[in-house]
Design goal:
Keywords: Membrane, Transmembrane, Transmembrane helix
Strand content: under 5%
Radius of gyration: 31 Å
Strand order of the largest sheet: 1-2
Number of helices: 14
Structural class: mainly alpha
Order of helices and strands: HHHHHHHHHHHHHEEH
Family: Belongs to the strumpellin family.
GO biological process, one term: endosome organization
GO cellular component, one term: endosome
Number of strands: 2
Distance between the termini: 87 Å
Largest sheet: 2 strands, antiparallel
Length: 339
């Protein structure tokens, strides 16, 4: 009986210890990311705020009637109103109460919608575009200010991808299959690659806590592994591009002969080869779509390594080109063995 009780207590305290450890780990991770996320939040807020404030100032100057090239009838009330709106936007504070700031912004949005009904504004496409852009930035400010610390902490925990360091390799073939089918999938994969950055956090937690000098070197090592994985997934793009180029070469040699400089008009329909030329154009367009898919990924930071999509595509093309040339030479340059 006593032994069973001791086992039960040991089991209970072991789980308590695991719970405390996990809680402390998640707490540390949330604090670690909180500083980065707060800075990004403030930067975005200030950027949107600056755009809105600048547009209101320009509209206020526009209705003054003295700005060069405006050619608009002066309207002192609108000038003062837009100036007042600019002051209200400038007074918004990202560190204030999110509910209060959100209500202020919504009032500004409603005011901009109401002012569009004025004839002097409704008749000007330029002013309407300015107001539309300002409303868009104000709505982004609302979304930004409502991103609270609790939400950031939850997102950080949910997006933890450290468990998938090995299992993610099983999905490389599936990723490449989807990319080959639809090049725009590359844009979706960017979110997956960014999520994989959380893999770097687990091996760096203790190193960061003890302020070790090896933090940079270890970060660089795991960042290089992550970049190598991303490059391996995206290797399908240059491979598919060269396959399509091979299709174009075969099409040009076999089904699209060179046209004579002059021929009779009655042979125009036969010489057009519309189906073949449509296939040629479609294949060529497919190559451009593949390259566009990677180039639209934008510059991405994987750990401590910044990856340029253009450089990634160029390296992949060089690698595939070397492989194809070496393979062609290996299959072509064969000499009989003299006995």
């Amino acid at each position: 009986m006593l032994q069973d009780l001791l086992k039960l207590l040991r089991f209970f305290f072991m789980h308590i210890y695991i719970y405390i450890y996990l809680y402390s780990f998640l707490k540390y991770m949330s604090i670690y990311f909180k500083k980065k996320d707060e800075k990004k939040k403030k930067d975005r807020w200030n950027q949107y705020k600056k755009e809105c404030h600048t547009r209101m100032i320009e509209l206020s100057e526009y209705f003054s009637g003295v700005k060069p090239l405006t050619r608009v009838e002066p309207n002192k009330k609108l000038q003062e109103w837009f100036g007042s709106l600019a002051e209200q936007i400038a007074s918004l504070d990202v560190n204030g109460n999110s509910n209060v700031e959100g209500r202020k912004i919504l009032k500004l949005v409603n005011a901009l919608e109401d002012v569009q009904k004025f004839h002097q504004i409704d008749s000007s496409l330029q002013i309407k575009q300015f107001l539309s852009d300002t409303k868009s930035y104000l709505q982004k400010m609302v979304r930004t200010v409502n991103v609270r610390d609790e939400v950031l902490g939850t997102v950080t925990i949910v997006s933890d991808f450290s468990y998938a360091w090995e299992i993610i390799n099983n999905y490389v073939g599936l990723m490449q299959k989807y990319i080959k089918k639809d090049p725009q999938i590359v844009l979706w994969l960017r979110a997956t690659f960014l999520k994989m950055v959380s893999i770097l956090d687990q091996p760096l937690v203790r190193i960061h806590q003890c302020n070790s000098e090896d933090l940079v070197s270890v970060s660089a090592y795991y960042s290089e592994r992550l970049v190598a994985f991303v490059s391996g997934v995206l290797d399908i793009v240059p491979k598919t591009m060269f396959d399509k180029l091979a299709q174009i070469a075969v099409l040009r040699q076999t089904r699209l002969p060179n046209l004579e400089l002059k021929f009779e008009r009655k042979y125009l329909k036969d010489k057009a080869l519309l189906e073949e030329r449509h296939e040629f154009a479609e294949t060529t367009h497919g190559i451009s779509v593949f390259t566009e898919g990677i180039l639209n990924m934008k510059t991405t930071l994987f750990g401590v390594i910044e990856v340029e999509p253009q450089q990634l595509l160029e390296d992949g093309i060089r690698k595939e080109l070397v492989f194809r040339i070496a393979n062609a030479l290996n299959n072509t340059l064969k000499y009989p063995i003299q006995k």
